[in-house]
Amino acid sequence: MLAPMVRILWSFTVAGQREQEFVRAYGPAGDWARLFAEAEGYRGTKLLRELSGSRRYLTEDTWETAEDFDRFTAAHRVRYDELDARCQALTSDESLIGIFEEAD
Predict the structure, then answer these.
(1) Residue 102 — very low, low, confident or very high, per pLDDT cuts 50/70/90?
(2) What structural domains does the chain harbor?
(3) Can you list the alpha helix ranges (DSSP code H) found in the chain?
(4) Rg over CA atoms, the chain
């Protein structure tokens, strides 16, 4: 039986007038996904927008294991931090919801 995939969930509130840039950076073909795609174990990103019009988004990054993500961040720390700094102005709030695995 295959091990359950790991999903890392983040919540963002996008800064005013920055939604198009945010989607380009955080979407499934965006800057973050392209960086993650260089890593073994990365399986994709989903971007969800809250229906209320609040400019709130969720990202769901899927990895085979939490260790795959940890290895990626250790190996690409400088590039990760550079991209994070470039994207900081796109959001007014950012928070890690958590790291989850599929339940049986």
Answers:
(1) confident
(2) 6-101 (3.30.70.100)
(3) 19-26, 31-36, 66-75, 77-87
(4) 14
Q: Tokens for 101, please give them.
A: 């695995």
pLDDT of residue 82: 97
Amino acid occupying residue 58: L
> What does the pLDDT look like over 18-55, one tens digit per residue?
999 999 999 999 999 999 999 999 999 999 999 988 89
User: Rounded CA gap, 66 and 62, in Å?
Assistant: 9
Contact 15, 90 (CB under 8 A): yes
Are 35 and 76 within 8 A, CB to CB? yes
